[in-house]
Write a structure and sequence with these properties.
Layout lengths: L3 E4 L9 E6 L9 H12 L2 E6 L2 H7 L10 H15 L5 E6 L1 H15 L5 E5 L24 E6 L7 H4 L8 E6 L16 H17 L5
Parallel strand pairs: 2-3, 2-4, 4-5, 5-6, 6-7
Antiparallel strand pairs: 1-3
Helix pairs in contact: 1-6, 3-4
């Protein structure tokens, strides 16, 4: 597989923005979630660039099921992608779970340098599962970069009930998906469906990107 998967709108529909989209800790860039969101965003006029962190690339090439790289290594990899893909289009960075967390740690620096227009996190891991006291929010209390977080109501890594108590920065918009878990999957009794929530996440992310200058 190529180093990147790039989904581009049809030639008759020039892209309005580019989204640099990183995967979560356990699934690769072509997982069902990543594929569905990337294709959906592309249909909305967004060019989507997916890539893999080193440990996931090694898994794909036949290596053992390695754990994620250290956070500095993950950030270095993401930084290199930002440098490569910043340019002609307004660039938004983000990802699924861990991918969004890595992007969030780079967002203010990249925003201040004029490399990116915003940050989009799809299922942010506010804390490890079962460890609600180990918060990953310190940098989100004062983040300046325009940020969208799309989160399931009952995400075990940060539910609505928990997140509303965190005091996050005013630059962060949170869109909640009713009864959704970390993959935006609701329980059947809720009356919602996972595909419906994926479509909603696509619409919310597209609307966010459309609101920025140059997009």
């Amino acid at each position: 597989m190529s180093e990147h998967i790039i989904d581009r709108p049809q030639a008759s529909q020039p892209p309005i923005a580019r989204f640099l989209f990183a995967h979560g800790a356990g699934a690769p860039m072509d997982s069902d979630f990543m594929q569905a969101l990337a294709v959906g965003l592309c249909w909305q006029g967004i060019e989507v660039v997916r890539f893999e962190f080193p440990y996931m690339s090694q898994r794909r090439s036949g290596g053992s099921k390695r754990p994620p790289n250290t956070m500095p290594q993950l950030q270095e990899c993401f930084d290199a992608q930002i440098e490569r893909f910043a340019g002609e289009l307004p660039l938004f960075i983000g990802g699924k779970s861990m991918g969004g967390r890595v992007a969030s740690l780079l967002a203010d620096k990249s925003f201040e340098q004029g490399l990116i227009a915003g940050l989009i996190c799809l299922g942010y891991p506010f804390h490890p599962q079962g460890q609600p006291d180990k918060l990953r929010t310190e940098h989100l209390l004062n983040i300046v970069c325009p940020t969208l977080i799309v989160q399931g109501d009952r995400d075990p890594l940060g539910s609505r009930e928990e997140v509303v108590t965190y005091g996050l920065a005013d630059s962060i918009e949170i869109e909640w998906l009713a009864d959704g878990d970390h993959d935006f999957k609701p329980r059947r009794a809720s009356g919602f469906a996972q595909a419906q929530h994926w479509d909603s996440a696509i619409d919310k992310a597209t609307g966010f990107m459309q609101r920025f200058p140059g997009s």
